[in-house]
TrEMBL record, chains A, B:
Annotated GO CC locations: cytoplasm
Function: Specifically methylates the N3 position of the uracil ring of uridine 1498 (m3U1498) in 16S rRNA. Acts on the fully assembled 30S ribosomal subunit.
Alphabetically ordered keywords of this record: Cytoplasm, Methyltransferase, rRNA processing, S-adenosyl-L-methionine, Transferase
Localization per Swiss-Prot or TrEMBL: Cytoplasm
Span of domain Ribosomal RNA small subunit methyltransferase E methyltransferase: 78-234
Pfam families: Methyltrans_RNA, PUA_4
InterPro entries: Alpha/beta_knot_MTases (IPR029028), PUA-like_sf (IPR015947), RsmE (IPR006700), RsmE_MTase_dom (IPR046886), RsmE_PUA-like (IPR046887), tRNA_m1G_MTases_N (IPR029026)
MF (Gene Ontology): rRNA (uridine-N3-)-methyltransferase activity
The protein's name in its UniProt record: Ribosomal RNA small subunit methyltransferase E
Ribosomal RNA small subunit methyltransferase E PUA-like domain sequence ranges: 21-61
Species of origin: Sedimentitalea nanhaiensis
Length: 241, 241
């Protein structure tokens, strides 16, 4: 029997391990979800898999859970990064949620020539990634990076990572995803509304690790494009195979 | 040169055709977008392709456009229906928007055993589909159907349409989309939160036109699942090939 409530914690998890709760977690479990002593919660911390735990102490300002048994091993996503240009708040939140559900290992907001955002709330986006991982049954939470300029990121590119470049100027061509070196890490790059600048497109076209991919004949919003691109990648090279 | 503003109208479009504007459209073009006489607008009506038009009369309560030349022929999407169980308002709106962007020909809200919604606002959902078509450059607007019970829909199923059934109980198996008869029309079925009932799953498994497909090892929210499933289908059998 698995608990329906899934909670991300930072504490280590293991057989008989006691896990203290923050005030916020105690409020959620005991105030909102109305759990009492003996109630079941599934825990994960991104390192030790999923554990079925039981409420040992329940208070207004805190409490503790005891880990009973591991219900799922840690399942790491493939080494896929999602690079995206932050857009309006709700859709940016949405992209982070979707990236976590779709199994991105790392989420990187990038500032492109046509990106308006000057800053992001990294902590808020990270919280969205945690919530999505709690909801989708994942045992891993992707890390949300700080906002970085795309040109700097491309200059510092490392480790043979391949880049799937979703260019809306390609709308209408075949969406084939050419594969890079076997087993290479990958990143997907989704542009902002208005797409990429001519300079960026020239630069990307000249990079030997970049692969241009079309996402069909219609122009997709950035959030749609992120899910569609991750689907193509997961099916061709990731953990949907 | 193509106008940046795209507007869906119901009026026929053709060379030299005058197109009257509703009060709402006039408010949008002249009040919000600040267009004046001579300003350019791209028009489509779902039948005659996309036309570049020019403002001929601009008033507070109406106005008229004149069609100058066709900029894109009508591009019909493949014969793909998206069947989905309505969920919370924002996510239902989102699914309709995504279905239009991804090129569904028809969108059908279905009531399943685990669907809470008793009714939908068909007119509001249709307006979302129009807006998405305006935004994504499509020349076609998918029709949003009325809410229908899934069991009734399956009983009345017609015309050799194949059904891609996205079952979250399949999470973790291969996501291969087996193809049905060549050139057959298709539908994608996305369940509500909580998935399908045991009765529904038994029934669907026994239908010769139904094909079970997995959407990877994580459990996707319904809106994510809709985009992912349409991506798989469009790439395998639709207009992304």
């Amino acid at each position: 029997m698995s608990a329906k409530i899934r909670l991300y914690v930072e504490h280590p998890l293991g057989q008989g391990q006691s896990v203290p709760l923050t005030r916020e977690q105690a409020h959620y479990l005991f105030g909102v979800m109305r759990l009492g002593v003996g109630g079941g919660v599934a825990l994960f911390n991104g390192r030790d898999g999923e554990w079925q735990a039981e409420v040992a102490e329940a208070g207004k300002r805190g409490g503790a859970l005891i880990c009973r048994h591991q219900s799922r091993p840690l399942q790491m996503p493939p080494d896929l990064w999602l690079l995206f240009a932050p857009i309006k708040k709700a859709r940016t939140d949405f992209i982070v949620e979707k990236a976590a559900e779709m199994g991105a290992a790392r989420i990187v907001p990038v500032q492109t020539d046509f990106t308006n955002a000057e800053r992001i709330r990294q902590d808020r986006l990270q919280a969205h990634a945690v919530e999505a991982a709690e909801q989708c049954g994942g045992t891993y939470v992707p890390e949300v990076g700080d906002l970085i300029r795309l040109d700097r990121m491309l200059t510092d590119w490392q480790g043979g990572r391949q880049l799937m470049f979703c260019d809306e100027a390609e709308a209408g061509r075949a969406s084939a995803l050419t594969s890079g070196p076997a087993g290479a890490p990958w990143a997907i790059l989704i542009g902002p509304e208005g797409g990429f600048s001519p300079d960026e497109r020239v630069r990307l076209a000249g990079l030997d690790f970049a692969h241009t991919v079309s996402l069909g004949p219609r122009i997709l919003r950035a959030d749609t494009a992120a899910v569609a691109a991750m689907t193509l990648w997961q099916q061709a090279m990731g953990d949907w195979r």
